[in-house]
Here is the input.
Amino acid sequence: MSEQPNTAGTARQQLEPAAADAVRAYAAKTRADADRFAAVLEDIAAHGLPAVETCTPWEELREAHLARLTGQRQAVA
Here is the structure.
């Protein structure tokens, strides 16, 4: 028995053009993020880990990210 759902007898609901564009944009962003991540991993594999002195501590990264999220929340409200 196949793991795939049987879609032969069911019709798929088409998205509105704006929703389809939004899904495509999200897919493109996700693909770009994955490509960037893969490039970083390939660089580490080829050249090793960066020196500790050149890295940003995770606490600083966390605080910057939380500040961005707070700014986005205020922009929406």
